[in-house]
Design a protein that fits this description.
The chain is α+β, with helices and mostly antiparallel strands. The chain has 2 domains: about 230 residues, no CATH class; about 55 residues. The protein has 14 helices and 8 strands. Strands 3-5-4 form a 3-stranded antiparallel beta sheet. A hairpin with a 5-residue loop joins strand 1 and strand 2. The longest helix is centred in the first third of the chain and has 26 residues. It is globular, with a radius of gyration of 24 Å.
């Protein structure tokens, strides 16, 4: 999947996927000579946010640090896509209100609001001789409701994030050629927020082979696999505004492999009479479910890229669900720092 200037993700053809996979496997020899022996899951660079109220990252400094570690990444493969994905006012606001620090501050405020609401309600309908019994009951109810809401918010952060993780797909598609994956993670440490942009070393070749093998083994139950994908990924829908294309031009290019979208259309927005004018926009929905007609390798690559940012975010924040660190790691684990690698995470999350 790649994002064009209008912000639309397009799925690559099979030959394009093969080219990307080949590039991911073959790294320039000059960069390898100066690069340490990295292993999958190791953090190469962690760049903290410049401000918690206006999250932003010094991408030029990130690139300089990566170059010091032997990663020669062009600006078009890192800085430009990251600015497109993260340097947007609405995304910055979302990072603030969805941060762990905001949830940390929200908890006591939510408790006070709930306590006042429950007390004012019960005080009108329940007459208690002992005032402290009413206060204790209200406090217990408020603690329960606050804990439930904070738990729901915490659990939602373990899922794939439409506003951040999905926007980083196009970035990871470029960085995976340089054996890197990127994600934004944050947590509270010593009562202060810790939001950082993480660059993690990852050689996708082994995960790609393992996931492709799994999908090929499931080929005899392809309908069951597709049903699972639809059930687990049906909410991953991108709503984009495409530049209106004249019907004559659209008809002439309908069979062009460069123009045909990789993501199939979940629902095409309605066109108005003004869509024929220059500069008009058409709202279109794209889903991220791999097309059933794609080969196993292309499906595996699309799944790996879709969940790459979510996996890295959970990996660096140590929130991956799985066996204890003290137990033996599962077989075929391609990650040296976690108990689950990317392909195993997808198998457990999507294919199980």
């Amino acid at each position: 999947m790649m994002e064009d200037k209008s912000g639309v993700f397009h799925v690559m053809e099979e030959n394009q996927v093969d080219v990307q996979i080949t590039q991911a496997k073959a790294q320039p020899q000059q960069a390898d000579n100066h690069r340490p022996n990295w292993s999958n899951g190791q953090c190469v660079v962690a760049m903290p946010s410049c401000s918690m109220l206006n999250p932003s990252f010094d991408l030029s400094l990130c690139r300089a640090k990566l170059e010091n570690d032997g990663f020669q990444i062009p600006a078009g493969d890192m800085e430009a896509p990251l600015k497109t994905a993260l340097d947007v006012p609405s995304v910055r606001r979302y990072l603030v209100f969805n941060s762990a620090l905001f949830h940390f501050i929200l908890a006591p405020m939510l408790y006070v609001v709930l306590w006042c609401a429950v007390f004012s309600t019960l005080h009108l309908y329940i007459t208690v001789s002992d005032y402290w019994v009413l206060c204790l009951s209200v406090s217990l109810v408020s603690i329960f409701l606050t804990t439930a809401i904070i738990f729901i918010l915490h659990y939602s952060n373990k899922e794939i994030n439409m506003n951040i993780d999905i926007r980083l797909i196009q970035v990871n598609e470029r960085l995976v050629k340089h054996k890197l994956l990127v994600a934004v993670a944050d947590w509270v440490q010593s009562c202060t927020g810790n939001m950082q942009l993480y660059f993690v070393f990852w050689d996708i070749s082994r995960c790609l082979s393992a996931l492709t093998e799994t999908l090929e083994e499931r080929s005899f139950v392809e309908n069951d696999t597709q049903i699972k994908l639809k059930r687990k990924m049906s909410h991953l829908v991108l709503v984009t505004e495409d530049a209106a294309v004249d019907s004559e031009v659209e008809g002439s290019d309908v069979d062009s492999s460069e123009q045909r979208p990789l993501l199939r259309h979940a629902d095409t927005g309605r066109r108005t009479s003004s869509s024929r004018h220059e500069g008009a926009k058409v709202t279109t929905n794209y889903n991220l479910i791999p097309d059933v007609a794609l080969p196993a390798q292309a499906k595996a690559y699309q799944l790996l890229m879709t969940y790459s940012a979510a996996y890295v975010r959970l990996l660096v924040s140590e929130r991956l669900s799985g066996p204890s660190h003290y137990q033996l790691q599962p077989r075929r684990n391609h990650c040296s720092t976690g108990h689950l690698c990317l392909c195993q995470y997808i198998k457990n999350k999507i294919l199980r």
